[in-house]
């Protein structure tokens, strides 16, 4: 068997594949591959371990050859995979849920606390030697505790963010999802809202946890941002294109909302011009799952999905085409 890994990942997962005695080809370039490079290096592979920066459609799969059995995406999100075209070719796909839930939820909370308490601004201020002694009005932020957190998209990550909010900060949680979750509601005293708009008008902090789909692109539009309270903060650790980034920039500039913190950008790695000049936004470079522990586990899960498939069993994290 031949496995192609499109970019170096932590060793644990690679070792699992090598221990099978399979040929494991890892891209020698420490960067995202071009489409032609992807096709060339993966030709003849039985399994390909992809990154979220690899755009895989039917024609890439055709280039790899009909022996291909699985594409194991090194991410929980899989909007980089054309699920229909890949499954039409009889190729399985898997992602890495669960192992990164806590890490992404932690990053979401770190962003929420950091924007509310102006941590990044305060750090820059301190390093610049601007602190001249205690002041009553120096760098005032807002409390997080007892506020209302609005979650849009209640999957594993959204639910874990709610856990921190309720158990750690006594926040009130409201949520919107295409499906209602009664168990979640009773566990966390959470309230279901029928539309995303109901979340936007009521919440003090809004955290987005939906997958990127045609129907979630620009879910947070200029009109929707206008519905938020002027005191509200928007947090996005899902996928950049869910928020209209130009609208976000303009709204922050005009103080239509109080602040935002984003880990994902609409056009990574390019940031909407002007966004980085604003003090009321914190920007991290798609690092919400980036801990040593979690990246290792993601590699192990991706490897496990490949192993199960190539040995003729069901991969545990199979992506089900809708
Ligand atoms: C990261 O964005 C992921 O989907 O795992
Ligand atoms: C991601 O796995 C989620 O369900 O939130």
TrEMBL record:
It comes from the Bacteria. InterPro entries: D-2-hydroxyacid_DH, D-isomer_2_OHA_DH_cat_dom, D-isomer_DH_CS, D-isomer_DH_CS1, D-isomer_DH_NAD-bd, NAD(P)-bd_dom_sf. Coiled coil: none annotated. Gene3D superfamilies: NAD(P)-binding Rossmann-like Domain (3.40.50.720). One of its GO terms (biological process) is amino acid biosynthetic process. Residues 109-288 form the D-isomer specific 2-hydroxyacid dehydrogenase NAD-binding domain. Keywords: Amino-acid biosynthesis, NAD, Oxidoreductase. Residues 3-319 form the D-isomer specific 2-hydroxyacid dehydrogenase catalytic domain. One of its GO terms (molecular function) is NAD binding. Belongs to the D-isomer specific 2-hydroxyacid dehydrogenase family. This is D-glycerate dehydrogenase. It comes from Candidatus Sungbacteria bacterium RIFCSPLOWO2_01_FULL_47_10.
């Amino acid at each position: 068997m031949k496995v192609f890994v499109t970019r170096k990942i932590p060793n644990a997962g690679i070792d699992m594949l090598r221990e099978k005695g399979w040929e494991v080809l890892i891209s020698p370039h420490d960067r995202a591959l071009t489409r032609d490079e992807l096709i060339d290096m993966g030709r003849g592979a039985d399994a390909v371990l992809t990154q979220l920066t690899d755009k895989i459609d039917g024609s890439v799969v055709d280039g790899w050859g009909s022996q291909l059995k699985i594409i194991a995406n090194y991410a929980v999100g899989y909007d980089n995979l054309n699920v229909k075209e890949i499954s039409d070719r009889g190729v399985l796909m898997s992602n890495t849920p669960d192992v990164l839930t806590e890490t992404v939820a932690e990053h979401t909370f770190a962003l929420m606390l950091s924007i509310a308490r102006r941590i990044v601004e305060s750090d820059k201020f301190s390093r610049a030697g601007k602190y001249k002694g205690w002041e009553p009005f120096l760098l005032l932020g807002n409390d997080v505790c007892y506020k209302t957190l609005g979650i849009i998209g209640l999957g594993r990550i959204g639910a874990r963010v709610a856990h921190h909010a309720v158990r750690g900060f006594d926040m009130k949680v409201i949520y919107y999802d295409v499906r209602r979750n009664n168990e979640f509601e009773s566990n966390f005293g959470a309230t279901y809202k029928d539309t995303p708009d109901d979340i936007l008008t009521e919440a003090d902090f809004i955290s987005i946890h939906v997958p990127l789909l045609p129907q979630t692109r620009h879910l947070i539009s200029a009109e929707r941002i206008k519905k938020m309270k002027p005191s509200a903060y928007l947090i996005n650790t899902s996928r950049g294109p869910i928020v209209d980034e130009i609208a976000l920039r303009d709204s922050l500039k005009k103080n239509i909302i109080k602040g935002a913190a984003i880990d994902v950008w609409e056009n990574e790695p390019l940031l909407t011009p002007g966004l980085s000049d604003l003090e009321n936004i914190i920007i991290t470079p798609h690092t919400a799952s980036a801990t040593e522990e979690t990246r290792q586990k993601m590699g192990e899960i991706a490897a496990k999905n490949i192993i199960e498939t190539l040995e003729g069993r069901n991969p545990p994290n199979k992506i089900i085409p809708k």
